[in-house]
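Annotated sample (chain length 145).
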Amino acid sequence: MTPEKQTLVKESFAKLLPNQDEVAHKFFTRLFELDPALRPMFQIGIKHQSRKFMDMLEATVQNLDQLDRMVPMLWQLGKRHGTYGVKDGHYEIVRQALVQTLERELGDAFTPETKSAWHEVYDLLATTMKQAAGDGAATRDFDER
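Output written by the structure step:
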C-alpha cells in the first residue's frame, strides 16, 4: 500500500472517530440488513461488539505502515473468527457493509481514491484473517485425530 493510500485511509478514519459509536452501530445495522443470518453469530451485546470492531479498525489503520505488527494481530483475530463459524463468503458481506457505511458517513470525502484505498486495506485484512481461520481449522482437525 502506497504512503498516499495510507494517508487517505488514516485521514478518512480520523473523520469517523468523533462519532465512532454511531458509525459502528450503522455498520452493524447495515451488516444485518445485508445478511440477517449473521446476527446470531454475535453472542455479546452489539454495543460491546461495536467497540471491539472500531478498536480493531483503529489498530489496523494505525499500523498500515507496520505490517510486522498488523499481520500477527489480524492472524489471531482470523483464527478466533474461524472458531465462531465465520466463512469466507461472510467477508464479502462485511466489505459491503463497511464500504456502504463509509460512503454514507464520509459523504463527498469518500472519493474514488479513498474508496480504492479502503478496498486495499480490507483485502489485506480479509485475506490474512481467512488464511488464519483456515490454518486454525486445519490445526483443530489435526489435533482431533
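Annotation: Residues 137-145 have pLDDT under 50 and may be disordered.
Annotation: The radius of gyration is 15 Å.
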